[in-house]
Amino acid sequence: MNLILLAPGDIEHGQQACIRDPRRLRHLKEVHRARIGDSMTLGVAGGGIGRGELLALDEEEARFALSTLNTPPPPPLPVHLVLALPRPRMLARSLEHVTALGVKTITLLHSRRVEKSYWQSPELAPDKINGHLVLGLEQARDTVMPKVNLAKGFRPFVEDVLPGLLETRRGLLAHPGMPQACPRGIDEPVVLVVGPEGGFIPFEVERLLEAGCEGIHLGPRILRVETAVTALLARLF
Amino acid sequence: MNLILLAPGDIEHGQQACIRDPRRLRHLKEVHRARIGDSMTLGVAGGGIGRGELLALDEEEARFALSTLNTPPPPPLPVHLVLALPRPRMLARSLEHVTALGVKTITLLHSRRVEKSYWQSPELAPDKINGHLVLGLEQARDTVMPKVNLAKGFRPFVEDVLPGLLETRRGLLAHPGMPQACPRGIDEPVVLVVGPEGGFIPFEVERLLEAGCEGIHLGPRILRVETAVTALLARLF
Questions:
Q1: Single Gene Ontology BP term (chains A, B) (predicted)?
Q2: CA dist A147 to A32, A80, A236, B133, Å?
Q3: Which of A74, A96, A202, B191 satisfies CB 3.0 to 4.6 Å to B220 for a cystine?
Q4: Per-residue pLDDT tens over the stretch B71-102
């Protein structure tokens, strides 16, 4: 937790902030070993970042005196990530990685090799997803929550939604065996599409290319989804 | 498990291979749902890769008829990764990520912000480390085991070992706030040094720069070690 993320309601009179959730109170005590008078980094959800001095810490709450929270959060990546829904544990870690890296729009997509049971996972509950996004923001000292969309039908997304996204963005389909190596250091808005473990099936690859995506690869190694997504984002931007 | 890694002793008369460990037998049954006659990818530790046909699968063993295992493994990354010893769970995942990405030489280094207890972790037992390296190789269809060295003293490593490594390699110290952005797409041998959660202390940064490392950064976001290492490798090579 490199930043304490405040909801607007956590701030009183613009000068003090108070957090009460057990997870962060425990983290402050056990990991930070925080003491009264410590200076810590805080930020307002969707807003600026600054420092606060710890005034009180007990079983119920932590209270901070705030400086002006006017440092902007780090810049986002200009990417809409479309990720075939990973298995639940991999989903959790992937959401944390990509949020820390600065992704702000994520669509979780069905595809043939996504097990249908994954869509029933408790990890998809909004609270659970939110929890992983917050962990990613806290890690990277960011304040801007990503938006996560669920696309439970492959064809409706690829036929009805994707073409509109690609009107103003470059579409990149990361898939083993595609002809073009992943581009490096680009600076334009991108829709990045990443398949499930085992990859998209040929029919799906064809539909994505038809919709206007360029096929790219990361070399001959087969990577886990969470490794591949991090590697793609690091190479692209 | 995208490749079944064979020890030379697993191959009989150069034509059949037999594996008996419960982990892989279970994986073949439960994840691959393998059936007699299935064709799978196999490779010999340190050697070539090919296909094999599953001849038998029971509680005791899986037996394959081998084709010629003569496809070379994917090329390694030209990097010696020097990583401040992460906490045990992060170590496990980091070893899998970097092995899958093609790192062949890893030094786990002590530094001030590495908790001394981490050096006592059962995760550092050679068998445990080996297990994570094998998972990385199986994932990426590689056969060449990385070498992992333990450097339990920061100064002995930086003063006595690192200068020799840097005679023939470019030294890069990844540390927040360094002046130079991480270079992209280089093709020369590198020693990549990555600090612990919380970073190297200033004294350590100075010693590493004195030893000949260039300081590089990945931008304003603070990343977890496993995310940072994957991002650095993907951007560098």
A1: rRNA base methylation
A2: 29, 10, 21, 35
A3: A74
A4: 999 999 999 999 999 999 999 999 999 999 99
Digit-coded pLDDT (tens) for A156-172: 999 999 999 999 999 99
Point out the residue among B96, B139, B227 whose CB comes nearest to the CB of A101. B227
Q: For chain B, what is the domain count?
A: 2
Q: Which of B96, B222, B234 sits opposite A140 (nearest CB)?
A: B222
Chain B residues touching A233 at Cβ < 8 A:
231
- Residue B73 falls inside a structural domain: no
Q: Please give the DSSP secondary-structure letter assigned to residue A183.
A: P
Query: What ipTM was estimated for this complex?
Result: 0.95
**Alpha carbon of A142 to those of A69, A102, B108, B124, B221: distances in Å?**
13, 8, 30, 34, 8
**Contact call for B227 and A2, based on CB within 8 A:** no
Q: Give me chain A's average pLDDT, please.
A: 96
Residue B74 included in any domain: no
For residue A44, the model assigns a pLDDT of: 94
**Inter-residue contact A138 to A3 (CB < 8 Å):** yes
What single letter denotes the amino acid at residue A20?
Answer: R
- In three-state secondary structure terms, A81 is strand
